[in-house]
Amino acid sequence: MASRKCLAVTAMRKVAAIPNSVPKHPPDEKRVPMVLCNAGYYGTLAAMRSLGRIGVPIVTVDTGILSPGGYSRYSSCHLKSPSLDSADWSEWLLAIGRDGPRRAIYATSDTVSYALAERCEEFGSMFDLYQPDLNTMMSILDKGLLHKHAQAVGMDTPETWLPETADEAEKIVREVGGRLVVKPRSQLSVRSGAKGLLIDASGTNGRAVYDDLLKQVGHGNRFVKRFPEATMPMLQRYHPEAMKQIYSLSGFRDASGEHVVMRAAIKILQRPRELGVGLCFDEAEVIPALAEQTVRLCERIGYYGAFELEFIVVDGRMLLIDFNGRLYNQLAYDIARGMDLPRMVYAGATRQPEELARLVQAGSRCSGSVPRIFCNSFGLSLMIAAQRIFRTMSLEEANRWRRWRKDADERCVDSIRDADDPVPALVDGAGQVWKSIRYSRSFVREMSRKNVHAVASLGAGI
Which one of 70, 357, 365, 396 has the fewest CB atoms closer than 10 angstroms to its CB? Predict the structure, then answer.
C-alpha cells in the first residue's frame, strides 16, 4: 500500500502508487505539490531536482516503474500511468486531480502539453496550471502552422512543402530533388515514435514514402481524430549542417509578456547523428535580432511559459526547425547557468507574481565568466564505443570527443549525473544498455552507418 505522502489511488484506476526506497529530501508541507509526468525524461529530472531542493513535494508519473526520475531522492511518490497516447490518460489524470489536496502540473512533453491544453478548464479546476490554450499550442505542435507564424514575424525556415496526397508528394520529390526530410506535421500523430525519414530524392519513390509515413499514424488517438490535417507528412530541405551545429534559444515568457529571459547554446552532437536528441552542447551568445523575433512569435500565437527554439545554422542564416513549448532535454544546463525555468513555471502556476518577477530578473543576469558545457556522459561514451566497434567513427574523432569531455570536467553539466542524487544515473545507464540490447537491430543499424536513413530515438530524455 502506498505511503500517506503518495496520492490516493482508487480501485477503479489502472495504476499503482510506488513508494520510493531511496532516502527522501524532506518536502515542505506548506508548498503546493508539483506533478511531473515523463519521469524518464532528463528535463523532468532537472525540474524535480530544482523544485525538490526548495522543498516542493514532487509526484512523478510515467508509464513504467523503471523511469530514472522515479528513483530520485526528490520524488515523494511515483505513479504508474496508462500510456500517454491512450484514450483514457486524460481521464486518469483528472481522477488524480479529484483526490487529495490541490497540486500544480506543467507540461513535460508534447503529449502532456496537448492534453492540458485540450481540456484546460477541467484541469484548471483541479490543478494549478500555467498553460496556454489549445489554439496557441496547435500553432506549435503543428509544424505547418508553426512555419507560417515564424515567417510572418521575419524568421527564416528551411524550404518546406505540405503535400495533401501521395501524388502531390511524388511530384514534389521529383521536381525539387536533393536530400529531403520527410516527417509528420505533428509528432503526436505517429504511434511509432519515429522522428522521420531522410531521403535522397533521386532514388526515392515519393508516393511510397508518403504512404509509409501515413501507416505510422495512430488513427485511434484523440489528437488524430480532432486534427486529421496534422497527420499529413511534410517535406523539408535537409541541411547537413544539422549534424554539427544547431542553435538552441531557450527561455521563459510570462503571461503578461512583461518578463522575458533567454539563454543560448549550440548542439554540437546528437544521436542519431543526422537528426536526433542532443548529447553535447556548448554555450553561445543570445542573438538580439533572433530574441526579438522570438518575442514577436510568442506574442503572435499567445504563448507563455518555458520554451526552446531550434535553428539550423546555414551560411549565417538561422533556420527555425522546432519550437518546444514545454520542459526540454537540456533543462539542467540552463538551470546551472542561472535561468531556473522550473521555479519560474511553478511560481506562475501557483500565482506568485513577485517571486516570478524576482526569478526572471535573477535569470537575466550574467551566468558567470566560466563557459560551461552540457553532456550526457554515459550516452556519449556508449556512442563512441559502439561507433568505434563498427568503424563509423575514426580514432581521431573519438579522441577529440573524449578530450572535449575530459577538459571540461569541472564545468560540465551532466544531463543526469548528480552527486546529491546518484540513483537515477545508475537506472538510466542500465536502461540505455538494455534498450541497445532489446532493440539491437535498430542500434546496430544506427551505429554501423555514418548516414542513418531511418530516424528514431533510442535514448531516453527527449
Answer: 396
Lowest mean pLDDT among 46-50, 59-63, 66-70, 454-458: 454-458
pLDDT in tens, 182-235: 888 888 877 655 566 777 877 766 677 777 777 776 666 778 788 888 878 888
Query: Does the residue 426 lie in any domain?
Result: yes
Q: Please give the model's pTM, rounded to 2 decimal places.
A: 0.88
Q: State which of 237, 264, 292 marks the end of a domain.
A: 237
What region, left, alpha or beta, does residue 257 occupy, with left being phi > 0 and alpha being psi -120 to 50 degrees?
A: left
Q: Does residue 416 share a domain with residue 288?
A: yes
Q: Measure the CA–CA gap between 88 and 441, rounded to whole angstroms.
A: 32
Q: Has residue 4 been placed in a domain?
A: no
Burial degree of 111 (CB within 10 A; 0-12, 13-18, 19+): buried
Total domains in the fold of the chain:
3
Query: 249 and 348 share a domain?
Result: yes
* 33 and 112 share one domain: yes
Query: Smallest Cα–Cα separation from 363: which of 258, 256, 249, 259?
Result: 259
Each residue of 343-371: pLDDT tens digit? Answer: 999 999 999 999 999 999 999 986 666 67
Query: Which DSSP string corresponds to 331-369?
Result: HHHHHHTT--HHHHHHHHHTT-HHHHHHHHHHHHS---S
